Hints:
This protein is mainly alpha-helical. The chain has helices at 26-36, 49-62, 72-79, 84-95, 103-119, 156-182, 188-225, 244-256, 261-270, 276-282, 294-311, 315-328, 334-349; strands at 5-7, 12-14, 20-21, 66-67, 99-100, 135-136. It has a domain at 186-282. It is built from 13 helices and six strands. The strands form three sheets. It has a two-stranded antiparallel sheet. A hairpin with a 4-residue loop joins strand 1 (5-7) and strand 2 (12-14). It is globular. Residues 280-297, 311-333 and 346-353 have low confidence and may be disordered.
Amino acid sequence: MEATRFDPQTMVIDPPHFKKVIYLDQFAISEMVKAIDTRSKSHARVKQVWRQVFEALERVCKQQLVVCPWSPIHRDESLVSEMFEPLKRMYEHLGNGVGFFRSTEIELRQINMALVAWLDGKAPPNHDLNPERITTGSLHRWQGRYLVTVSMNHPPEQVSGLRQRRTRLNRSLARWFDECRQRTDKSFDHALRIEFEGYRDVLLGAYRDALNRGNELLRQYEAATGEALPSHIENVAPPVGPGSEQVWLILEVLKGRGIAKGEIAKILSCGFLRSASRLCWAIVLPSATRYNQRDNLQPALQRCRRELRAGWKSRRSLAYAARARRVRGGRGTARDRASNQAARHSRRSAPHP
């Protein structure tokens, strides 16, 4: 059996040690905070299974078996809560310095790959779903004992803006839900096609808005000066609002390919954005495991136990399997109880690192 070498200076293990990557929904983070924080107003009402979930996750994170990267969505959702600091401490504690990039940044990468392949007439690219490519920090690095974090003063305008966006989103989802109830075709494919068409319309709308604003500014400049705007001045009216970053990227790629401005509108309207099937493989959500409903929690814990037993034959993995059984609430079989007892004995006899 190959010996494992560990460098305490770089915290690198050779051969590499790969952890399970779990993405926690904001709902799970909030419920765990309420379960362990006695000062929370909802502490008495929250189900104690969430305390057990936290204990299980914290244990396997400290055992270097699991990492739960946080994301900017966690931060935004926590900022509008009165429990911001406890929530921040929770997702940073389980993330241990590892976080996802902004979802828009991941989306822009995938759009760029899709657009380049479309312009070259090639087949859709196979997106690399390796989470290391979309996270900061090091997913599989051996984490140290200390985590240093800094809290900054978020201006009230930022928090107010987040609340307003959430309100608009809630209203939009409510209208969308009512429309779904009235549809005769309630199949998944039909709903997915509508989502793709809506996404396309948002990007086309952002481009047309930028084009109209630019033409209006040029008209006002010529009316005020009697001269045309110098040709070296570009991006008179850059895209703003929803879809602006995506449209800006698409325009830059087309510009880099030497496509004339007069052809861009045709390409966007009748080409790339009109092809819903292209966007179908262009926009791929990062692969993640979500714990967002209690109904999903029990099968997930059972699945974790099976994976630990099948792939991680170590004393620590057996310890986590025992903890997963307790979270599930069952006593297990005689074999499970024997494994549980063996795991407890090994933990007591194992030397501390």
